[in-house]
Amino acid sequence: DESTPDPVLDFEDFEDWTLYATDNFAGGDIWHCIANPAYGLFSGMMTNLTDKDPCTVNFGAQIVFFIGSTYPSASYPGLFDTPFCTGPGNISAPCQDESIVSPVIDMTKYSTGRNEVQDGDIPAEHLSFLGGTVFTFTCYRDIPLPNLVFYTWDVRNIDPIDDCPGIWRNRSFVYYGGDKDYIFRGFDVSDLVIANYPMQVRIGVSDMCDAWYDSYGDCAAHTPSPWFDNVRIERYMVQGPQWAWRDLDIFQDNFPGVEFDLESWVRADAANDLNANDNPIIRPGDSIVVDCTSPLAGALRNGGTTGDAEVYCHVRATDIGGLGKPALFGSDLVGTYGTYVSDNGEWTIIQCDSALSAGVNVVDDKFMVDLNDSLFTRGYMVEYYFLAWDADNFSSTLPRRADEGTYFEFTCLPTGKSDILYVDDFHGRGTFEGITETYWNPTFAAVIPPENQPDRYDVNNAASLVSNGPGSRAKLNQLRRNEGSNSGYTIIVWDSGNLSVGTITDGSTLSDKSDDATMLINWLDQSENDVGLFVCGDDVAEDLNRLPSTQALELMSTWCGVNFVEGSYFDLTGGRQANGIVTPLITGTVGGIFGSSLQFYTFGGCPIINQFDVLAATANGTVALEYPEYDGSTYAAGIQSITPNATGYDAKTMWFGFSFMYLRDMEAVAPNVRNVVWNDIFLWFNGIANTAITEDEVPRANKLSQNFPNPFNPTTTIKFDVRAKGHVSLKIYNVAGQLVKTMANEVMDAGSYSREWTGSNNAGVKVASGVYFYSFEAENFKATKKMVLLR
After folding, report:
1. Across the strands, what pairs with 781?
2. I need a labelling partner for 49 at 20 to 30 A (CA). Which of 104, 263, 272, 396 fits?
3. Beta carbons within 8 Å of 3's beta carbon, 6+ residues apart
4. What is the pLDDT of residues 122-176, one digit of tens each?
5. Is 298 left (phi over 0), alpha (psi -120 to 50) or beta?
6. Strand, helix or coil at 660?
7. Rounded to whole angstroms, how far apart are CA atoms 124 and 195?
8. Cα-flanking dihedrals φ and ψ of residue 353, to 5°?
């Protein structure tokens, strides 16, 4: 009823929805029951409410919750923002909690005419196997976390005997997102509804300012969002046990518990922090939990060692660090929960316990297992998967492809095999492994020698802000690589994909308690060698810019030389209203390590339009990459920086305003642009790359490498790259600044060169032991490095 004067409207009784099921789909194994508004809920009522989704053909009118609001929207002229809470200061109850409910959906029928009339019966041979139900929709969000406005969903059954509705069920989550874009969401609700029973769906908006003010946000701003469209219920066939899990409920990569004892125990802990966000102590869950149901058989099979539900965890632990540690198996693997069944010298089988709520009450369909916290040490990878049987004697595994070698895993870091750490802050999104990892792995393999492939820290459910980033578990002495040590890292690669929150967290209430920013600052400042940090992600700079902490600003500005300008190059260039640039052409700069010849695209297209950060250089920062010029101005896409640290070494950083997975070649050539870009950064960080990427190629940037060996006696080799033909100088000086040896002072062609120094001066006299500096100059480029001669 849009005429009501109350800005808070209740759509519970709105009856303009019709629901129907389409013809069978995808070979007959999926049936669609579609919730479709029969009438335009807002057609012609106000301006600027046209469909703004270029990626999806929308079949119905959109559903909004701001009609009747008295708050005109500044960011969406012609529309209104969702209402604020009604109490003083906009923080007192009652707050907005509105929803729209569908009519009853008959889950045994479909529509032969693909309309609102469900006039066909789903065939019995299909119906008997339709135990799975998925609830999907698209949502235009623009509801950043500080607003404390969230979108919600629920499902419920209708009793077919007395037509009484059951209780609304959901995952006990509210959802948000700051990107001004449509997102497709899909939720498996098989365990929340009864197969073949009629059902209803509900979508809504909830303002949590009365509950979470000043814990997660300040409620200072609202938008017209959320908008809903393309609401669907889909059914799929199931046989055998069915699984569900959250990445935050399974094991998290971890570091030793004692900072200065690298061989101390590495705990097998879940990702989720059990303490509230306002409790400064991080307390990870000790056991892990998965959901397992049997919608067709009616129950899981009871038996095994305990006589309870047959849900098993298969575990194996192997040394991947080359430290000579034995494989671990047997009853010693079992922790507080779970019962040892058997092992074959490789895999150990543990029967899971029923999960307990607050350690007391059994939770239906949830199962937990724990591993020994005084068993694993650095270098071990612990792989595991689940297997269950139902009452009809059918089995299934989680992950589904476990029989093909796809397992869950967590790693005890540092492994000792690599001086490179890759932080996958987009783990498990898009693919089982996470789509950023699927792009990074072949690039790592192409550029980095096999014996130095990176350690990886997967951040499970980063956007859920459950305090499980590496800053929650890693300690400085475990990260920095001390002289003569085979552990720690000289290079860290951090990719947050397209996350808008939970990127590099700072320990504040607007982030989570994992202080990743301070961890990185300490590593950059205290490492006793040259180090390199590569940060990439669509919204990392925007995320850090909104955080109030000094460490967020120090990391981004002081150490990385980055100033945040705009959260979306697409919006800056016009956005949806004026055909903004979706896939910009990125160009290297004369002063950057890539040189001006480098060009590639950053893919910003469907299924969502990516919001790439626009940057500027500050402090020691230099623009390395640029977006296309717009309206007479240039904007930075990548920033490089070199900052001396407290131990006298160089801390080098490279920061991209987009995720590495969005780099695209301009044409089909080899090597691909991702390999070229990472190779340039890796070499700039003083890494030793595979020759396949570098040989017979013109260098893309001037570069001076660290001499090798160092310290040395009696000779050492200095390598350098010349990007374009020109005058080149390479000279060696003593600590007093006096010239010792001229290694090069001439015009050189573009190419890669090396010079060997035998420890003698220009007169041919051998010099004394000590510290020397070598300086390289070429085409507006100058670099100096330190080396040690020990006789």
Report:
1. 778
2. 104
3. none
4. 888 888 888 788 999 888 889 999 999 999 999 999 999 988 999 999 998 999 9
5. left
6. helix
7. 13
8. -90, 160
